[in-house]
Design a protein that fits this description.
77 residues; 2 helices
Amino acid sequence: MAKQEDIKIPFQFDISGYPVPVVDNDVFGNSILNILSTSVGERIHRPTFGSFLNRLIFEPVNPATSSRATAEIIRAV
């Protein structure tokens, strides 16, 4: 059995045994950054994890690209 200090994610459980959501902004921000900076297909056992934002790097800065980026962020998160 692993000790709680060995686990990097701060798990907490309520009385009924369900996980309590963590509202620490630093943890939340790092998780979103991890999702958006990982390319889809980069993780072998999680082929749908990540985003396609890397495909928009050299696209022109215009409303269409902004809409595509927004849609991709919503899909990924």
